[in-house]
C-alpha cells in the first residue's frame, strides 16, 4: 500500500511539474475547459428564462444535477480520465512498452501516470453551482440524504472510471482512434438532465444497462429526496459495469502489439 501511494504521489508530482513549466498555457486551458463545462448550465438558465422548462423540475433542481456532473468530472478527469489521452499517445508512439516493464500493476501505473490538473476547474465550478442551487432551493437536507448522496457519488466516479477503461482499452486495438472522446461526450450528455424527461425505455437503458444516470441524476436525487427503488438495481449494474470494463481493458491489452512486434 505504501509503495502504491509513493507511486501515485510521484506521478502527481511529475504531472504538476510538467504543467507548471508552461503556466500561461495551463491557465488558458483551465479557463477554456471551465467555460466549456459552464455551457450546459448557461443553456439551462436561458431555457427557464424563456419560459420553457423540464416537466416536473425547476431551474435549481436541474442546475443541481449539472453541478453534480461537474464535480464528478472535476474529480475523475484529473485523477484517471487522462489515461485515455496518455495511452492514445504512448501506443501511437510505441512508448507504451516502457510501462509494461514497470514493477507494478500496468492498470494502476496507467492511472497514476495520467494525472491532469487542467480539469480541476470543473470541480470548483461544480461546487459553486451546487451551493448556488441549494441556496435557492431552500430545502432542508438531512444527514441521511447527504450520506446517500456520498454513497451514490462514489458510484458516479466508478461509472466514469468504467467508461475510461472502455475508451482506453479500445486504443490497444484501434491505435490513434481519437473519436472515443466524442463518443463519450455524446453519451454523457444524457446525464446532464433529469432522468424522468426521457421515455420509459430510455430511462431503463441509462439506469439498468449503461448506468449513465448514476453519474449525476441519482446523486442529485438523493439530495432532493427524489430517489426511487430503482436506484438499488442501478447500483448493482454499476458494479457489474465496472467489472466488465476492467475485464475488457485487460482483454484488449492482450491485443497490444509492441513497437518491436
TrEMBL record:
The keyword Protease does not apply. Signal peptide: none annotated. The chain crosses the membrane at residues 26-48, 63-84, 96-113, 119-137, 149-172, 205-224, 231-252. It holds the Pfam family ABC2_membrane_6. Keywords: Membrane, Transmembrane, Transmembrane helix. This is ABC-2 type transport system permease protein. It comes from Orenia metallireducens.
Amino acid at each position: 500500500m505504501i509503495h502504491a501511494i509513493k507511486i501515485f504521489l510521484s506521478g502527481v508530482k511529475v504531472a504538476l511539474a510538467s504543467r507548471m513549466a508552461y503556466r500561461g498555457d495551463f491557465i488558458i486551458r483551465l479557463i477554456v475547459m471551465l467555460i466549456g463545462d459552464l455551457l450546459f448550465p448557461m443553456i439551462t438558465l436561458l431555457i427557464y428564462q424563456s419560459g420553457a422548462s423540464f416537466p416536473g423540475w425547476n431551474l435549481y433542481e436541474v442546475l443541481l444535477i449539472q453541478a453534480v456532473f461537474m464535480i464528478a468530472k472535476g474529480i475523475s478527469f484529473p485523477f484517471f480520465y487522462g489515461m485515455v489521452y496518455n495511452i492514445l499517445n504512448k501506443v501511437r508512439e510505441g512508448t507504451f512498452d516502457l510501462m509494461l516493464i514497470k514493477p507494478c500493476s500496468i492498470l494502476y501505473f496507467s492511472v497514476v501516470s495520467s494525472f491532469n490538473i487542467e480539469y480541476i476547474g470543473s470541480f470548483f465550478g461544480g461546487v459553486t453551482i451546487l451551493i448556488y442551487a441549494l441556496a435557492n432551493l431552500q430545502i432542508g437536507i438531512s444527514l441521511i440524504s447527504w450520506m446517500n448522496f456520498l454513497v451514490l457519488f462514489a458510484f458516479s466516479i466508478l461509472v466514469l472510471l468504467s467508461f475510461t477503461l472502455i475508451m482506453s482499452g479500445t486504443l490497444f486495438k484501434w491505435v490513434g482512434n481519437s473519436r472515443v472522446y466524442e463518443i463519450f461526450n455524446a453519451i454523457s450528455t444524457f446525464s446532464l438532465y433529469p432522468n424522468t424527461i426521457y421515455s420509459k425505455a430510455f430511462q431503463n437503458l441509462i439506469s439498468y444497462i449503461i448506468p449513465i444516470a448514476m453519474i449525476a441524476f441519482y446523486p442529485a436525487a438523493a439530495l432532493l429526496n427524489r430517489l426511487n427503488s430503482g436506484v438499488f438495481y442501478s447500483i448493482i449494474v454499476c458494479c457489474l459495469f465496472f467489472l466488465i470494463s476492467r475485464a475488457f481493458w485487460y482483454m484488449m491489452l492482450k491485443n497490444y502489439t509492441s513497437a518491436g512486434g
